[in-house]
Design goal:
- By secondary structure, the chain is α/β, with parallel strands linked by helices.
- The chain has 15 helices and ten strands.
- An eight-stranded mixed beta sheet has the order 3-4-2-5-1-6-7-8, with helices on both faces. It has a two-stranded antiparallel ribbon with strand order 9-10.
- It is globular and about 80 Å long.
Length: 441
């Protein structure tokens, strides 16, 4: 089965490479595609005031991140969505690896390029934490302000293409760590593929490990689809799923869009109507993420808070079990090794499920705590009961209150059309249990 799929990829590669020179020459004179569906779907022609964005974690402008191998059309896709082709604003594109920087496209009153060191030093922007990745990285970070209506509602981030034969240290900065920073803050992640670049190497494998837990935000894009005949496209589509299946271990795979995201007309004798509908579906997806940005961010923060709470409870249970098993003559290292090697023998996870409102499906892997405590010694932690004060209260109670009351209260306020930035416990009464809008009273 795998041999057949790889054969299909090889045939596709040969077919595409044979057409490459003709394609480059034809692109210069090819008629441009109508853009009215982009303006309509993204509501770019509507004369309405832009939303009130700030650099706060919840109220910041949504971010769309473009990832993928080199020369798959990430920069071309951004140019196409913004209509920047043949203008002084356009991102440079080409058949060779062209994007070596992390490029952040933002809205501004006029075209302006901002160096990475300036972006990191400007406390008014949300990029100051990037300074921790060093000066070599800041030289590879660039911001571009463009007076475009779509950028009033969203920020695009173009990334360097993944080159499998290049070692990370050759980049001069921690590429995967930088990608993780942007992944953690992205509202939508486009992973773009070319029909001729479906091989999965170590760097792409690492990237998908970093995307774990973000599956709902991932959209897979099979770009340049009109370069293939129907039968070959079907084979490549199957090869793409075959390659990614081991990397995306979820019941429902991410949505895959098949089209050609560039300004030229689709090639003749291809599924032009299908490609157009796929493109419109992607634009609707993008617009929905922009419109639901607050709800999505609040829901994600709540999801993260639940994970933090479970992690805190588990670490506390490990610590309490360790203290209970220790005696005057015990070897602390051996005692804790016994606990961490077989937590079920000490009912670590079962105790958490029995005493707290935790779903068994949210519990992390037991093996992960071997690595965690290998880096963070158990002696460096305090019991949760010891981390309470008369004035400040308890850390765990604050997380519980955020999960059960404050964050649901924010979501409820959005349904009532209120400004979440104006909410606090004095105004909303965080001590009271919020009403469930979906339950009949």
């Amino acid at each position: 089965m795998r041999a057949l799929v790889l054969l299909g990829c090889l045939l596709a590669s040969l077919l595409f490479s044979g057409q490459a020179e003709e394609t480059e020459d034809a692109n210069e004179e090819a008629p441009l595609r109508d853009r009215s569906h982009i303006e309509k779907t993204l509501m770019l022609n509507e004369d309405k005031p832009s939303d009130d964005y700030s650099d706060g974690e919840i109220t910041s402008k949504p971010m769309v991140l473009f990832l993928g191998p080199w020369s798959v059309g990430k920069s071309t896709m951004i140019n196409y969505l913004l209509g920047l082709e043949n203008t002084r604003y356009q991102l440079y594109t080409g058949a060779e690896p062209t994007t070596s920087e992390f490029t952040v496209l933002m809205h501004g009153p006029k075209l302006k390029t901002i160096e990475g060191i300036v972006m990191a030093a400007d406390s008014a922007r949300s990029f100051s934490p990037l300074e921790k990745f060093g000066q070599n990285f800041l030289e590879k970070l660039i911001g571009i302000e463009v007076p475009h209506k779509l950028l009033e509602r969203v920020t695009f981030v173009d990334t360097p293409g993944i080159i499998e034969n290049r070692k990370q240290q050759e980049r001069g900065y921690p590429f995967n760590d930088v990608c993780q920073w942007f992944i953690d803050r992205a509202d939508l992640i486009f992973v773009v593929f070319d029909p001729t670049k479906l091989d999965v190497g170590l760097e792409l494998e690492m990237l998908f490990r970093q995307l774990k837990g973000r599956e709902s935000q991932i959209r897979i894009i099979l770009n340049k689809a009109d370069n293939l005949a129907t039968q070959m496209l079907m084979r490549v589509y199957g090869a793409l799923f075959w390659s990614l299946a081991p990397l995306i271990n979820v019941t429902e795979p991410p949505r895959v869009y098949v089209s050609s995201f560039w300004p030229q007309e689709y090639k003749p004798d291809t599924h032009q109507e299908l490609f157009l509908q796929e493109e419109i579906s992607l634009l609707e997806d993008l617009n929905q993420v922009i419109e639901n940005r607050l709800e999505n961010k609040i829901a994600f923060i709540r999801q993260h808070a639940i994970r933090v709470r479970i992690h805190a409870l588990l670490v506390d249970r490990y610590l309490q079990t360790y203290k209970d098993k220790m005696t005057f003559f015990s070897d602390g290292e051996l005692v804790f090794k016994d606990i961490v090697e077989d937590p079920d023998k000490f009912y670590i996870f079962k105790t958490i499920l029995a005493k707290t409102n935790v779903s068994k499906f949210d519990l992390p892997n037991r093996e992960a705590y071997k690595d965690f405590f290998g880096i963070n010694p158990i002696s460096s932690f305090k019991l949760l009961s010891q981390q309470c004060s008369y004035m400040g209260g308890c850390f765990l109670e604050k997380i519980e209150r955020a999960i059960t009351q404050e964050l649901p209260g924010l979501l409820g306020s959005l349904g009532l059309g209120k400004n979440p930035g104006a909410l606090n416990c004095d105004k909303t009464g965080c001590s009271e249990t919020p009403k469930n809008r979906y339950r009949k009273h």
